[in-house]
Specification:
Elements: H1 2-38, H2 41-48, H3 52-58, H4 62-72, H5 87-99, H6 105-109, H7 113-119, H8 121-145, H9 155-174, H10 181-191, E1 210-215, E2 222-223, E3 228-229, E4 235-240, H11 247-254, E5 260-264, H12 269-290, E6 299-303, H13 308-312, E7 323-329, E8 332-338, H14 342-355
Parallel strand pairs: 4-5, 5-6
Antiparallel strand pairs: 1-8, 2-3, 4-7, 7-8
């Protein structure tokens, strides 16, 4: 009887997965033909050969379904990409990979993305934080090609490049034929010479870390930066809701080279998880085509819509404002911190042990 129940349960799960795939395929056709605003859930259900209720059992609304479709789009790589060995070459190669995506059915499918982001604050704020994370990832890659002066960074340069590339996308959708793709590539190459006086200021306050000795057994996960299975065997693991994504830089800058894994969680996974996979995955797909592997940003980014990796880190309840961090060594959690500044606290603690200095916020017992 138990074996029969297991088989029934597996069959139900497989059926649900097949139905989800049917809905995504049908929705992609519907959005491609009619656009987001004119697409109808009833039409999507009919295309999939399912009921309207079956669509809503997999996706809570049309926007969540739209984001999921865009997150699943597989973009073809440009032929024979040239890897950049300097910031100028890498930004030019990144721009070539990016503008190669501005034409064709995949690009037309996403023309309504920015309108949906702008229409709702609950999406616009997380999108802004995801763009900040994109800029950090690109900035870190640029810094590995051209290390800046101590304390300086290249994140604002990355922000400027992303502003140009996303602007090119908006114009390609709104004014087809306007501008030359080659000029966008040339302009991005020349951005590398900008001096933006960009420095990182560490936070002045951080919570105290707490020693721990807990098992660390996270489930398998995919790293959006490399597009391959994540290595979760050590370093700083930062559990962050979208509102706290700027804290990633605190973990990276304070960690003195310690591995950093960002676990993205949210209180609205149906919409924000595919949005995160779309925004980060698209940039990193282009980045892998344009930067040598040695320059890829030293950060893993894992989406955790079910909260299973967060639960393994001892964070059972998550929201868009979650910030918690743990340090993992030899298969165990050895320290943790929660709340504003937690990422910096856990990363800086490790740095202070190796440098002999106190981590910010610890000596004074802040928070």
């Amino acid at each position: 009887m138990a074996r029969y129940r297991d088989q029934v349960g597996l069959s139900r799960a497989q059926t649900q997965e097949r139905n989800r795939a049917k809905v995504l395929a049908a929705a992609r056709e519907e959005f491609a033909e009619r656009g987001f605003r004119d697409a109808k859930i009833d039409s999507i259900a009919a295309r999939a050969g399912l009921t309207r209720g079956a669509v809503y059992s997999n996706f809570p609304g049309k926007r969540a379904l739209y984001f999921a479709v865009l997150a699943e789009v597989e973009w073809p790589a440009p032929p024979n990409p040239t890897l950049g060995r300097s910031p100028a070459e890498a930004l030019g190669a990144l721009a070539r990979a990016w503008v190669a995506r501005l034409d064709g059915p995949e690009a037309r499918l996403g023309v309504d993305l920015f309108g949906e982001v702008q229409a709702d604050e609950s999406v616009r704020t997380p999108f802004t934080r995801l763009m900040i994370l994109d800029a950090l990832l690109l900035g870190l890659a640029l810094e590995r090609l051209r290390p800046p002066a101590p304390g300086a960074r290249l994140v604002r340069l990355a922000e400027t490049a992303l502003t140009m590339l996303h602007g090119a996308r908006r114009l390609a959708a709104a004014a087809p034929g306007f501008g030359e793709a080659f000029d966008v590539v040339s302009a991005c190459e020349r951005l590398a010479g900008l001096e933006l006086n960009d420095y990182w200021a560490p936070p002045r306050l951080a919570p105290p870390t707490r020693p721990a000795s807990e098992p660390w057994s996270p489930p398998p996960a995919v790293d959006l930066v490399t597009g391959s299975p994540a290595r979760l065997d050590g370093g700083v693991v930062a559990v962050l809701g979208p509102h706290r994504l700027p804290a990633v830089e605190e973990a990276v800058r304070a960690g003195a080279g310690s591995p950093v894994t960002v676990v993205l969680v949210t209180g609205a996974p149906a919409e924000l998880d595919p949005l995160a996979r779309l925004v980060i995955g698209e940039l990193c797909g282009c980045l892998r085509q344009s930067f040598p592997r040695t320059a890829w940003p030293p950060v893993q980014v894992v989406c955790d819509p079910a909260g299973s990796v967060a639960a393994a880190a001892g964070v059972p309840a998550v929201s868009d404002g979650t910030e918690a961090a743990v340090r993992v060594e030899d298969g165990r959690i050895v320290s943790r911190a929660d709340g504003f500044g937690a990422c910096h606290a856990v990363a800086a603690e490790h740095d202070s042990k190796h440098s002999g200095s106190a981590a910010p916020g610890h000596a004074a017992g802040l928070f």
